[in-house]
Amino acid sequence: MERTLSIIKPDGVEKNVVGEIISRFEKNGLNIAAMKKIKLSKSDAEGFYAVHKERPFFGSLTDFMSRGPVVVIVLEGEGAISKNREIMGATNPEEAAEGTIRKDFATNIEENTVHGSDAPETAEVEINYFFNAFEITG
Ligand code: IDP
Ligand code: MG
After folding, report:
1. Ligand 2 centre and the CA of 23: distance in Å?
2. How many angstroms separate the Cα of 85 from the Cα of each of 37, 43, 116, 118?
3. Nearest to 63 by CA among 116, 8, 99, 10
Protein backbone atom coordinates (compact mmCIF):
# COMPACT_ATOMS: atom_id res chain seq x y z
CA MET A 1 0.00 0.00 0.00
CA GLU A 2 1.44 3.36 -1.09
CA ARG A 3 0.48 6.97 -0.32
CA THR A 4 0.80 10.08 -2.47
CA LEU A 5 -0.13 13.74 -2.19
CA SER A 6 -2.67 15.19 -4.60
CA ILE A 7 -3.58 18.87 -4.75
CA ILE A 8 -6.61 20.19 -6.62
CA LYS A 9 -5.12 23.56 -7.57
CA PRO A 10 -6.98 26.92 -7.48
CA ASP A 11 -8.12 26.60 -11.12
CA GLY A 12 -9.74 23.22 -10.37
CA VAL A 13 -11.57 24.66 -7.35
CA GLU A 14 -12.66 27.72 -9.39
CA LYS A 15 -14.04 25.47 -12.16
CA ASN A 16 -16.10 23.56 -9.56
CA VAL A 17 -14.74 20.16 -10.60
CA VAL A 18 -13.50 19.00 -7.18
CA GLY A 19 -16.08 16.20 -6.98
CA GLU A 20 -15.45 15.08 -10.55
CA ILE A 21 -11.70 14.85 -9.89
CA ILE A 22 -12.13 12.95 -6.61
CA SER A 23 -14.52 10.57 -8.38
CA ARG A 24 -11.80 9.74 -10.92
CA PHE A 25 -9.42 8.81 -8.11
CA GLU A 26 -12.01 6.56 -6.48
CA LYS A 27 -13.02 4.90 -9.77
CA ASN A 28 -9.36 4.03 -10.32
CA GLY A 29 -9.03 2.29 -6.95
CA LEU A 30 -7.39 5.09 -4.97
CA ASN A 31 -8.79 5.72 -1.49
CA ILE A 32 -8.88 9.07 0.30
CA ALA A 33 -6.74 8.68 3.42
CA ALA A 34 -6.98 12.40 4.32
CA MET A 35 -8.43 15.54 2.76
CA LYS A 36 -8.96 19.25 3.48
CA LYS A 37 -9.64 22.54 1.72
CA ILE A 38 -7.10 25.22 2.61
CA LYS A 39 -5.73 28.53 1.32
CA LEU A 40 -1.97 28.74 0.84
CA SER A 41 -0.12 31.98 1.51
CA LYS A 42 2.52 33.02 -1.02
CA SER A 43 5.22 31.72 1.33
CA ASP A 44 3.36 28.41 1.88
CA ALA A 45 3.38 27.95 -1.91
CA GLU A 46 7.06 28.93 -2.12
CA GLY A 47 7.90 26.35 0.55
CA PHE A 48 5.95 23.62 -1.19
CA TYR A 49 7.56 24.32 -4.59
CA ALA A 50 11.04 25.14 -3.21
CA VAL A 51 12.58 22.58 -5.59
CA HIS A 52 11.52 24.84 -8.49
CA LYS A 53 12.81 28.12 -7.01
CA GLU A 54 15.38 28.70 -9.76
CA ARG A 55 12.86 28.14 -12.57
CA PRO A 56 11.65 31.19 -14.52
CA PHE A 57 8.01 30.39 -13.71
CA PHE A 58 8.49 30.17 -9.91
CA GLY A 59 7.00 33.60 -9.11
CA SER A 60 4.02 33.13 -11.35
CA LEU A 61 3.45 29.54 -10.16
CA THR A 62 3.45 30.54 -6.49
CA ASP A 63 1.13 33.53 -7.21
CA PHE A 64 -1.26 31.10 -8.92
CA MET A 65 -1.10 28.51 -6.14
CA SER A 66 -1.90 31.14 -3.50
CA ARG A 67 -4.65 33.04 -5.35
CA GLY A 68 -7.51 30.91 -4.00
CA PRO A 69 -8.28 27.75 -2.04
CA VAL A 70 -6.91 24.33 -2.90
CA VAL A 71 -7.96 20.83 -1.83
CA VAL A 72 -5.09 18.72 -0.50
CA ILE A 73 -5.63 14.97 -0.48
CA VAL A 74 -3.65 11.94 0.65
CA LEU A 75 -4.42 9.15 -1.81
CA GLU A 76 -3.74 5.58 -0.84
CA GLY A 77 -3.59 2.42 -2.91
CA GLU A 78 -1.38 -0.04 -4.71
CA GLY A 79 1.10 1.93 -6.83
CA ALA A 80 -0.69 5.13 -5.81
CA ILE A 81 2.12 7.47 -6.92
CA SER A 82 2.31 6.27 -10.52
CA LYS A 83 -1.42 5.56 -10.76
CA ASN A 84 -2.18 9.15 -9.75
CA ARG A 85 0.34 10.51 -12.28
CA GLU A 86 -1.41 8.46 -14.98
CA ILE A 87 -4.86 9.75 -14.04
CA MET A 88 -3.48 13.33 -13.99
CA GLY A 89 -1.83 13.30 -17.43
CA ALA A 90 1.22 15.21 -18.68
CA THR A 91 2.23 18.56 -17.12
CA ASN A 92 1.30 20.38 -20.36
CA PRO A 93 -2.37 19.71 -21.13
CA GLU A 94 -1.59 19.92 -24.85
CA GLU A 95 0.50 16.78 -24.38
CA ALA A 96 -1.84 15.03 -21.94
CA ALA A 97 -3.55 11.80 -22.99
CA GLU A 98 -7.29 11.63 -23.67
CA GLY A 99 -9.38 11.06 -20.57
CA THR A 100 -6.81 12.48 -18.12
CA ILE A 101 -7.66 15.22 -15.65
CA ARG A 102 -5.27 17.72 -17.20
CA LYS A 103 -6.53 17.00 -20.74
CA ASP A 104 -10.12 17.55 -19.63
CA PHE A 105 -9.77 20.49 -17.22
CA ALA A 106 -6.38 22.25 -17.38
CA THR A 107 -6.13 25.78 -18.77
CA ASN A 108 -2.42 25.69 -19.68
CA ILE A 109 0.95 24.30 -18.56
CA GLU A 110 0.85 26.38 -15.36
CA GLU A 111 -2.84 26.23 -14.45
CA ASN A 112 -2.98 22.49 -14.84
CA THR A 113 -5.59 21.63 -12.20
CA VAL A 114 -3.78 18.99 -10.14
CA HIS A 115 -0.50 18.21 -8.42
CA GLY A 116 0.78 14.69 -7.77
CA SER A 117 3.92 13.54 -5.96
CA ASP A 118 6.52 12.02 -8.30
CA ALA A 119 8.39 9.53 -6.05
CA PRO A 120 8.14 7.88 -2.61
CA GLU A 121 10.59 10.36 -1.03
CA THR A 122 8.75 13.44 -2.33
CA ALA A 123 5.38 11.90 -1.43
CA GLU A 124 6.46 11.58 2.20
CA VAL A 125 7.80 15.13 2.41
CA GLU A 126 4.75 16.59 0.64
CA ILE A 127 2.22 14.68 2.78
CA ASN A 128 4.00 15.87 5.92
CA TYR A 129 3.96 19.46 4.61
CA PHE A 130 0.16 19.52 4.93
CA PHE A 131 -0.97 16.74 7.29
CA ASN A 132 -0.10 15.48 10.75
CA ALA A 133 -0.43 11.84 11.80
CA PHE A 134 -3.86 12.37 13.44
CA GLU A 135 -5.35 13.66 10.19
CA ILE A 136 -4.38 10.65 8.08
CA THR A 137 -7.01 8.08 8.83
CA GLY A 138 -6.28 5.67 5.97
P1 IDP B 1 4.30 18.22 -12.54
O2 IDP B 1 3.27 19.02 -11.77
O3 IDP B 1 3.68 17.53 -13.73
O4 IDP B 1 5.10 17.27 -11.68
P5 IDP B 1 6.65 19.96 -12.58
O6 IDP B 1 7.66 19.98 -13.67
O7 IDP B 1 7.02 19.34 -11.28
O8 IDP B 1 5.32 19.28 -13.18
O9 IDP B 1 6.21 21.47 -12.36
C10 IDP B 1 5.46 21.84 -11.22
C11 IDP B 1 4.36 22.78 -11.67
O12 IDP B 1 4.94 23.98 -12.17
C13 IDP B 1 3.47 22.27 -12.82
O14 IDP B 1 2.46 21.39 -12.42
C15 IDP B 1 2.93 23.58 -13.37
O16 IDP B 1 1.87 24.09 -12.55
C17 IDP B 1 4.15 24.49 -13.24
N18 IDP B 1 4.97 24.50 -14.45
C19 IDP B 1 5.77 23.52 -14.92
N20 IDP B 1 6.39 23.87 -16.06
C21 IDP B 1 5.95 25.13 -16.31
C22 IDP B 1 6.22 26.06 -17.38
O23 IDP B 1 7.01 25.81 -18.30
N24 IDP B 1 5.59 27.27 -17.31
C25 IDP B 1 4.72 27.59 -16.29
N26 IDP B 1 4.46 26.75 -15.28
C27 IDP B 1 5.05 25.54 -15.30
MG1 MG C 1 6.42 17.71 -10.12
Report:
1. 22
2. 21, 26, 6, 8
3. 10
Testing ligand 1's pocket by substitution, the residue of 91, 95, 105 carrying the most ligand atoms inside 8 A of its CB is 91
DSSP H or E run through 102: helix 101-105
With a Cβ cut-off of 6 Å, ligand 1 is lined by 52, 57, 61, 91, 109-110, 112, 115, 118
Question: Can you give the pTM of this predicted structure?
Answer: 0.98
**57 vs 41, 52, 64, CA distance in Å?**
17, 8, 10
Name the β-bridge partners of 76.
3, 31
> What percent of the chain stands above pLDDT 90?
100
Q: What is the per-residue pLDDT across 72-120, written as a single tens digit (0 to 9) for each?
A: 999 999 999 999 999 999 999 999 999 999 999 999 999 999 999 999 9
Q: Which atom of ligand 1 is nearest to the CA of 64?
A: 16
Is 52 designated active site? no
